[in-house]
Amino acid sequence: MMPFPHQTPRVFNRANVEAINPGQKGCYGLVRREVLCGLVKPDVWVYVGKGDIRERLLAHLSGDNPCITGQAATHYVTALTQNMDQMETDLIWGLMPVCNKKVG
After folding, report:
1. Spatial separation of the C-alpha atoms in residues 87 and 80, rounded to whole Å
2. Cα(28)–Cα(68) distance, rounded to whole angstroms?
3. Which domains does the chain have, with CATH numbers?
4. Which of 23, 25, 48, 99 could form a disulfide with 91 if both were Cys (CB 3.0 to 4.6 A apart)?
5. How far apart are CA 1 and CA 46, in angstroms?
């Protein structure tokens, strides 16, 4: 599996997403981070998608996908790529996010 490039996940909020330059195409992943009794639990992959990253993340923040909203994603990562279809497929198969019911 081709993972996301090494990066610090950013907090999934409107200010951070609006700071992304418009028109950046690629893949993105939404995760939920939880801290329980001071211990950080492993990230839960919520969703992997592709397209105009800023546009898609803003749509998710606006509640376009009930599963993503219900899973309460807290952070996101991105990867700019020309080969979005293949990368998205590889990431979905490798990460098995809870809100991706299908590939593509």
Report:
1. 10
2. 13
3. 10-95 (3.40.1440.10)
4. 48
5. 17
